[in-house]
Write a structure and sequence with these properties.
single chain, three-stranded antiparallel β-sheet
Length: about 110
Amino acid sequence: MQSRELAEQKLQGMLAAAGLPVKPSYHRAQVCALLGISGRTFYRFVAAHEVDPDSGAPRHSWTLDSYMTRGHHRVRFDELVGYLQRNRTYDRRHADDPRQLDMFGT
């Protein structure tokens, strides 16, 4: 299985655990719950996002691309898949903890 497919499958599992549907984009609170980050960290990820003009990839793998609607940041589904694909350390830090799924009340 390719890393992109694996990252997409992982994100769909995270969405199911959080009780969120698969949709084109997610707002700040949903992204924070999925990734286990604070609102402040979310804004750091978004503010530091910069695309390398030569490769088209983010300069820093830990950042998130977003867009604004009425003053609120939204992150696309594909960007979350790309984030998980770029940051494989997420597995080592979070996935082995059985309490991770319990935090969503499942």
